[in-house]
Structure to design on (287 residues):
């Protein structure tokens, strides 16, 4: 691969203690020959400016999967590669640990890496035929009940035909990347992350179909909502969006995708998966 030369190292503003580590990483990149290595918080307006102006060849996310998710939202429409350095608990999306930086950065600056393409989903909320918002997600779009512990009625239509009706806490529309996130927690299948399919998984269905369904990339799923109480839409775990009775959510493959920087061979996914399954990293950790 052509070696990158201009970097942005990003952290989450909720972790101010990581800022110093980000500065150390930027200094290491400069010492190895980078032309530019600057640090930002993930929501900083100036970060969008430098990405839009073509001043960055690669974004480095330092933190956990949440930082990586936000980083993917930033780089996907701009076709900028993304490298994750894990400081979180799971790190399913991350490529290296902070201890590996010196060795891996030498490989990076020599062009000894490859890019793994991950699909995104596009979700659009409609109310009375009018669009109320569009989201592009790396993991999932979830339509679910709100604070009232009562199920809602959700009907999923595939290209106009009824796929299933669910009296449930919610319905997940996930990418293969998201199959190891919320979808896995509610019993969905694990999918190789480079596939380009849509996974549909119900959450706590009551006397309803409880099977996950894997759909082709070209499918469009419409989720219709019937409820007498609060319901919400969540896009990659961001702040919930209120959903009302009669609203619909269209989910399809996004035109954007995100490129993850990889150093190991393609079998890395299954090796990491086995490690996580054998020892849950949350157990005994501090929240």
């Amino acid at each position: 691969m052509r070696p990158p030369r201009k970097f942005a190292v990003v952290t989450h503003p909720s972790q101010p203690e990581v800022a110093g580590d980000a500065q150390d990483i930027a200094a290491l990149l400069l010492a190895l020959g980078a032309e530019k290595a600057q640090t930002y918080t993930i929501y900083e307006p100036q970060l969008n400016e430098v990405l839009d102006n073509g001043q960055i060849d690669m974004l480095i996310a330092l933190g956990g999967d949440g930082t990586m998710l936000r980083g993917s939202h930033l780089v996907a429409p701009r076709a900028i590669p993304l490298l994750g350095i894990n400081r979180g608990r799971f790190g399913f999306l991350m490529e290296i640990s902070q201890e590996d930086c010196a060795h891996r950065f030498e490989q990076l600056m020599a062009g000894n890496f490859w890019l793994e393409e991950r699909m995104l989903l596009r979700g659009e909320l409609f109310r009375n035929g009018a669009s109320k918002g569009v989201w592009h997600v790396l993991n999932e779009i979830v339509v679910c009940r709100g604070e009232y512990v009562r199920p809602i009625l959700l009907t999923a239509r595939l290209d106009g035909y009824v796929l299933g009706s669910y009296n449930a806490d919610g319905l997940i529309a996930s990418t293969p990347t998201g199959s190891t996130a919320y979808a896995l927690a509610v019993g969905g299948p694990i999918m190789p992350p480079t596939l380009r399919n849509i996974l549909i998984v119900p959450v706590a269905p009551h006397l309803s179909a409880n099977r996950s369904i894997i759909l082709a990339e070209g499918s469009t799923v419409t989720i219709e909502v019937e409820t007498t109480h609060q319901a919400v839409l969540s896009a990659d775990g961001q702040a919930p969006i209120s959903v009302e009775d009669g609203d619909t959510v269209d989910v399809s493959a996004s035109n954007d995708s995100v490129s993850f920087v990889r150093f190991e061979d393609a079998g890395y996914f299954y090796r990491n998966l086995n490690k996580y399954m054998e020892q849950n990293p949350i157990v005994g950790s501090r929240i």
